Amino acid sequence: MAQPKQRKIPLRKCVVTQEMKPKKQLIRVVRNKDGEVFVDQTGKKNGRGAYISKSLDVIDQAEKQQVLNRHLNAKVNGEIYEELRAIVEVED
Description:
Largest sheet: 3 strands, antiparallel
CATH class: Alpha Beta
Number of helices: 3
Domain YlxR: 12-85
Protein name: YlxR family protein
Mean pLDDT: 93
CATH architecture: 2-Layer Sandwich
InterPro entries: YlxR, YlxR-like_sf, YlxR_dom
Structural class: alpha+beta
Organism: Halobacillus naozhouensis
Number of domains: 1
Strand order of the largest sheet: 4-3-5
Pfam families: YlxR
CATH superfamily: YlxR-like
């Protein structure tokens, strides 16, 4: 009898820590064609995405170093970081 195939867990790299992690442990931030930046909790929206670890320290570091601005080639405002922090706090 054949063993059921194990599904591959999709890995993504955190733009701050450069660590490869399962997609479920990261939050995706997206810039769409119109230049709008938003948090994509589904991970399926169209646009340029950047993944960030679900950690307040990492989010703070991303804000200080403007990491998302560079990755998304767009101005990421403070509201995005607040939303990321809120998501992390809910999941803890």
